[in-house]
TrEMBL record:
Catalytic activity: Transfers a segment of a (1->4)-alpha-D-glucan chain to a primary hydroxy group in a similar glucan chain
Taxonomic source organism: Komagataeibacter diospyri
Pathway: Glycan biosynthesis; glycogen biosynthesis
SMART domains: Aamy (SM00642)
Family designation: Belongs to the glycosyl hydrolase 13 family. GlgB subfamily.
Claim: Lipid biosynthesis is one of the keywords in the record: no
Alphabetized InterPro entries for the sequence: A-amylase/branching_C (IPR006048), Branching_enzy (IPR037439), GH (IPR017853), GH13_cat_dom (IPR006047), GlgB (IPR006407), GlgB_N (IPR054169), GlgB_N_E_set_prok (IPR044143), Glyco_hydro_13_N (IPR004193)
Protein name (Swiss-Prot/TrEMBL): 1,4-alpha-glucan branching enzyme GlgB
Length: 739
């Protein structure tokens, strides 16, 4: 077909000056294909191209090349083709020729239904819609980009592929949702990119990383990286089939918390951190040998500042590139599951840092954060607070949570800093906060968000768990949403932690006067489904190590440490300890170092690790110690008032299983002939003695068994007469059945 060249085809359309100078809010109105009867006018913008040719695909006549006319110094090139003909571009650069499809030849990309759900904060799979999505459109492979920036005048995709020039790939605005989109042919996984955003006033903001990126450069670099869409080949079917039972409230759950960069330095090199595959090779055997059921990773979502330990994340959809690719992270989770170990991630919806490449002032306005600092700034951390009153922000966070649980088979999320979310006056003085609509201090938007989050998890991945770090007495944290609660599966028991640490730091000779400090926790032990936590927060910021808080000489400090751990494992509630505690590390944790692995040659240290291993084994194999962790019928006091001897005793129960008697001697004085009531007579097996020589103790005990006679005591028909070792715990159960 011979095309008549009409001068109108080459006239400069309205708005071309804004387009050329990177100010146009609607590049598709000028660029791409525009029909003019029997011909389509094609306009492209390449400022630095020597020339551009149209490669026209004709069904009968084959391929034909047509030159495009360069329009002066504008960088705009215009050409014509038969109406509806397929075409691509051949671009002559100074040193190369590039053939590519025209990004502006494609129609609307993101489905209206997806945009509608996004605007309502109800899209569960935003990781499949927003950000950079490799795909094939009309037979052309490339990447579709989508970003939320409703207040921007212009948004462009920039990267190595266009020399970080924001004039090259301006995006189309979907006005109803405030989402900008563009499909760039020829791009694929591994490309670096960001967004260049112009404000309504015409200012160019610092280049922004993609809030929905599923991969990023390794910090301190800040670009987003197009992630591979290839699904991971999971081999954890058996684990996933059993997960509901393994994480139920009647299951034994013991959690090993760790900071991945500092858990162990490869080859002892202080400047190196482990990759996910290195971590799997070393961590999994260690955790299996110690008997923990789960690992909990301090935040691995991409974060710019290593000193934040991950608690100031910006890439809520991206595992940190510090340790490898998303596929490497999936392989780590898969390996944990294959070994029977669950994986919990710390997840931070309470705040985000103010790094300029991140979410702050994202499109020139307070978008993800509050405008008013009385609502939007965390003074403790100098970070910004998410505006949970916006549907899109709530949806962004919930989609992040669901992505980790679905895409990476994560077993649970521990939600950080929930207390700071629930109260508008958290860590604020009078006049520094704004009351809610009823004049109260409760953050109603955060309450609604947490309920929506937990309901979404329960509806979508019902066998996953959520855990609240909540340090106040907010009622119903683990109560179901439909019953007025927040809907978490478990709550960290911060009150138990503070009271217990205070008690065990006291001189043992005076502990009898302070028994209420550790008795009080049992008054509310069943008000929520609790995890007893000794986390990283207790061994940093000048607090010293857990061992350093134990009083006495070196022997007594380690005896107290073993007693504390045995007390914890016998107390109702699931268990969590931070790395290094399991072998009584001497020094305070530092994220720049690693646990003091070299001291495991010390018998006291190896003995502490051994008792933790044995406690984990007993906790799993004796149902009385775990099956009713969240039920008051699983606990009964035997002795709770012996302030003279500072001795405590209680029973743990599980239907159909033997009870376990727990006796604690909180002083360094051996108690001979100490009578303790029990429900049945006969031999009781001493299954744990924290003073055993293999743990580094003195070996005082009862020879492995105690006989219960029909001498009534403490409200029970029978009793045992025991020798109580110094600063030690005893566990005993009827000898006829070890189950």
């Amino acid at each position: 077909m011979r095309i008549r060249h009409d001068a109108a085809h080459y006239s400069l359309p309205k708005g071309v000056d804004d387009l050329v100078h990177g100010r146009s809010p609607d590049p598709f109105s000028i660029l791409g294909r525009h029909n003019m009867g029997k011909v389509d006018v094609i306009r492209v913008l390449y400022h630095d191209a020597a020339r551009v040719r149209l490669v026209v695909e004709r069904p009968r006549a084959g391929v034909m090349e047509r030159p495009m006319r360069r329009m002066g110094e504008t960088g705009l090139h215009i050409g014509t083709i038969p109406a509806g003909a397929r075409y691509h571009l051949k671009i002559q650069w100074a040193d190369a020729v590039e053939e590519t499809d025209d990004p502006y030849a494609f129609g609307l990309l993101v489905d209206e239904a997806d945009l509608h759900l996004f605007s309502e904060g109800r899209h569960p799979h935003l990781d499949r819609v927003m950000g950079a999505q490799p795909m094939v459109v009309g037979g052309t492979a490339g990447v579709r980009f989508a970003v939320w920036a409703p207040n921007a005048r212009r948004v462009s995709v920039i990267g190595d592929f266009n020399f970080w020039d924001g004039r090259r790939h301006p995006m189309r605005l979907r006005h109803g949702a405030g989402v900008w989109e563009l499909f760039i042919p020829g791009l694929g996984p591994g490309e670096r990119y960001k967004f260049e955003i112009m404000t309504r006033e015409g200012h160019i903001l610092p280049q922004k990383a993609d809030p929905f990126a599923r991969f990023a450069e390794r910090p301190p670099a800040t670009a987003s990286v197009i992630a591979s869409p290839a699904p991971f080949a999971w081999r954890d079917h058996d684990w996933m089939e059993q997960r509901t039972a393994r994480q139920a409230e009647d299951a034994p759950i013991t959690i090993y918390e760790l900071h991945v960069p500092s858990w162990r330095r490869p080859q002892g090199d202080p400047d190196r951190i482990m990759t996910w595959r290195e971590l799997a090779a070393e961590l999994i055997p260690y955790v299996m040998e110690a008997g923990f059921t789960h690992v909990e990773l301090m935040p691995v979502m991409e974060y710019p500042f290593g000193g934040s330990w991950g608690y100031q994340p910006l890439g809520l959809f991206a595992p940190s590139a510090r340790h490898g690719t998303p596929a490497d992270f999936a392989a780590f989770v898969d390996a944990c599951h294959s070994a029977g170990i669950g994986v919990i991630l710390d997840w931070v919806p309470a705040h985000f840092p103010n790094d300029v490449h991140g979410l702050v002032n994202f499109d020139g306005c307070a978008l993800y954060e509050h405008q008013d600092p009385r609502e939007g700034v965390h003074r403790d951390w100098n970070t910004h607070i998410y505006n949970l009153g916006r549907h899109e922000v709530r949806g962004f966070l919930i989609a992040s949570a669901l992505m980790w649980l679905e895409r990476f088979h994560i077993d649970g999320l521990r939600v950080d800093a929930v207390a700071s979310m629930l109260y508008r006056d958290y860590s604020r003085r009078d006049g520094e906060w704004i009351p809610n609509i009823h004049g109260g201090r409760e953050n109603l938007e955060a309450v609604a968000f947490l309920r929506q989050l937990n309901q979404a998890v329960r509806d979508t991945i019902p066998d996953a768990i959520t855990v609240a770090e909540e340090s106040t007495a907010w009622p119903g944290v683990t109560r179901p949403v439909e019953h007025g609660g927040l809907g978490f599966s478990y709550k960290w028991n911060m009150g138990w932690m503070h009271d217990s640490l205070r008690f065990f730091a006291r001189d043992p000779l005076w502990r009898g006067y302070h028994l209420p400090e550790i008795l009080f926790g049992l008054d509310y032990a069943f008000s929520e489904r609790f995890i007893l936590c000794l986390s990283h927060d207790e061994v940093t910021h000048g607090k010293g190590s857990l061992l350093s808080r134990m009083p006495g000489d070196n022997w007594q400090r380690h005896a107290n440490m073993r007693l504390f751990l045995a007390f914890m494992w016998a107390h109702p509630g699931k268990k969590l300890v931070f790395m290094g505690m399991e072998f009584a590390q001497e020094g305070e944790w530092s994220h720049d170092g690693q646990p003091e692995w070299h001291i495991l040659t010390d018998p006291f240290k190896s003995g502490t690790l051994r008792i933790v291993t044995d406690l984990n084994h007993m906790y799993r194999t004796l149902p009385a110690l775990h099956a009713r962790d969240c039920d008051p019928t699983g606990f009964a006091w035997v002795i709770g008032d012996d302030t003279a001897n500072t001795v405590l005793a209680w029973l743990r129960f599980a239907p159909g299983h033997v009870p376990v008697l727990v006796v604690l001697n909180m002083t360094p004085v051996v108690r001979h002939d100490y009578r303790v009531g029990v429900p049945v007579g006969g031999a009781w097996r001493e299954c744990l003695n924290s003073d055993a020589t293999e743990y580094g103790g003195s070996g005082v005990g009862n020879g492995g068994y105690a006989m219960a006679t029909d001498h009534a005591a403490h409200g029970h028909p029978c009793s045992c007469v025991l020798t109580l070792p110094p600063l030690a715990a005893l566990y005993l159960h009827p000898a006829g059945d070890g189950s």
